[in-house]
Amino acid sequence: MESAIDTHLQCPRSLSRRVPDDYQPPFPMWVGRADAALQQVVMAYLGVQYTDQAQRPDALAAMRHIVASFDGPDGAVHHDLTHHVDNQNHHNLMAVGYWADPAAYCRWLRSDEVKDWWGSDDRLSDGLGYFREIVAPRVDQFETLYAFQDNLPGVGAVMGRISGEVNEHGYWGSMRERFPLSQTDWMQPDRELTVVLGDPAQGGRVVVRGHNNIALIRSGQDWRDAEGEERSLYLDEILPTLEDGMDFLRDDGATLGCYSNRFVRSIDLDGNELDESYNIGHWRSLDKLERWAESHPTHLRIFTTFFRVAAGLDKLRLYHEVSVSDGKEQSFEYINCHSQTGMMRDARLPSSV
Fold first, then answer.
1. Of 19, 157, 148, 17, the residue nearest 97 (C-alpha)
2. Rounded to whole angstroms, how far apart are CA atoms 323 and 136?
3. Residue 350 has what pLDDT?
4. Whose CA is closest to 185, among 9, 341, 315, 8?
5. Whether the Cβ atoms of residue 155 and residue 41 lie closer than 8 Å to each other
6. DSSP 8-state class, residue 24
7. Alpha-carbon span 38 to 28, nearest angstrom
8. At what angle do helices 286-295 and 297-309 cross, to 10 degrees?
9. Which residues lie below 8 Å from residue 201, measured CB to CB, with a gap of 6+?
10. Whole-angstrom Cα distance, residue 50 to residue 322?
11. Which phi and psi (to 5°) does residue 344 adopt?
């Protein structure tokens, strides 16, 4: 059995594990693997926000424009598309892109096609909202976990390979211990979210400054190939419990340190729903995420449901990826989005800092 931390990322531990070295997990799980040449990735959540169905064609066209900008040598090497309705009853489309080379991402971002479109006055007047939430963790700052071994989604598609069965899962604290950085660093936050441009209450262009070690979790479910009892298991047992927990974090997560929570449905370029979904959660710290996972009833119900059925999963594909990042490697920008969108909700205006 392998360690979730790849050999070239292992170092002498100054922080101890929660379980003994001979711990045996209750069922098999795997993590993504990458060549040592991979040093840092970029995760870009590029959103289009609209208020009613009459705006849907324009919003879909904007999303397609973003996807088209991925064409070429500097575009995202992997992407997927999602839709969700937030608790302000706004629709949100997202193109979620991944880069294996931050320099390529910077060239894409600064290209005339991308820069001119984002900076155009049309973005302020076309009746839609837009956002870009970007983090660029180093390889020691993220972890993955999969209940399957092929066609990895998300950052796994950038990593390219899969491990053998890994040791660090099935116990509280295992998420942290899959981070290479956890061998020597507690990954603590250092300041508050701050608005550095604009005013969320006024609309227009708003930029939020993040801080070190914001935690981002993407936790996914793919039931495209699940049939019969397994499909029913997901739709009738797992999904309702999952939705309850995600709605709680969306509406009340601020008190627990959750900056933003979105439970999204995967779609195609025409906006048609696919049998995939995932949660996107931004947290003040990994510690805050862990406290909710270990102690809050909404997650304990999710966790116990998964443990009860995990050994019998065949076609249902469950996974997650969790990262932290340095404040200088984050970018949170919004155009004409409502003030509760993403990081704007909890960001302080300069006068209140």
1. 157
2. 9
3. 85
4. 9
5. yes
6. -
7. 26
8. 70
9. 339
10. 28
11. -65, -35
Q: Which two tokens stand for residue 50?
A: 């609209």
Q: Which two tokens stand for residue 88?
A: 């302000």
Are 144 and 320 in contact by the 8 Å Cβ rule? The answer is yes
CA nearest neighbour of 122 among 342, 335, 333: 335
Q: Is 78 tagged catalytic?
A: no
> What is the DSSP annotation of 103-169?
HHHHHHHHSHHHHHHHHSTHHHHSS-EEEEEEE--BGGGEEEEESS-SS--THHHHH-EE-S-BSS-
Count the neighbouring beta carbons within 10 Å of the beta carbon of residue 311: 9
DSSP summary character for residue 238: I
Low-confidence ranges of the chain (pLDDT < 50): 353
Helix, strand, or coil (residue 18): coil
103, 207, 280 from 110: Cα distances, Å: 11, 17, 26
Instruction: Tell me how far apart the alpha carbons of residues 290 and 18 are, in angstroms, rounded to a whole number.
Output: 13
Query: Among the options 79, 91, 169, 320, which is catalytic?
Result: 320
* pLDDT at 308 (0 to 100): 67
pLDDT at 314: 78
- Quick one: angle between helices 239-252 and 297-309, nearest 10? 160
If you count DSSP H runs as helices and E runs as strands, how many of each does the chain have, helices first?
10, 14
**């003030």: which residue's tokens?**
339
Cα(200)–Cα(339) distance, integer angstroms:
5
Alpha helices in 233-296 (DSSP H): 239-252, 286-295
Per DSSP, what are the bridge partners of residue 133? Answer: 45, 332
